[in-house]
Design a protein that fits this description.
mainly alpha; 2 strands; flat; Histone, subunit A; single chain; about 40% helix
Amino acid sequence: MATVLSLADVDRIATLARLELTGDERARFAAQLSAILAYADQVQQVDTSGAAPDEGAGGSRMRDDEPAPSLDRERVLSQAPAADRAAGLFKVPRVLGS
């Protein structure tokens, strides 16, 4: 059951994403997003009941988590242009809400 998005749907999505779209972009995105939803619906219809989970060669889907050495904190902080060495943190410019 494929969903065809209307221009109103695209407008609502654009508002949520804080995008300003032209008329051409609205129509193009409606078609593209509808095609993506149709493909997702097609993927959902695939019968996977007989498929075994992929366990890889080692019998586990993920590798073991083994500790490894990392960078020296003091050395890294000493090379940072703005760092709070006492707190052990980098200072970065504000991106959100600016």
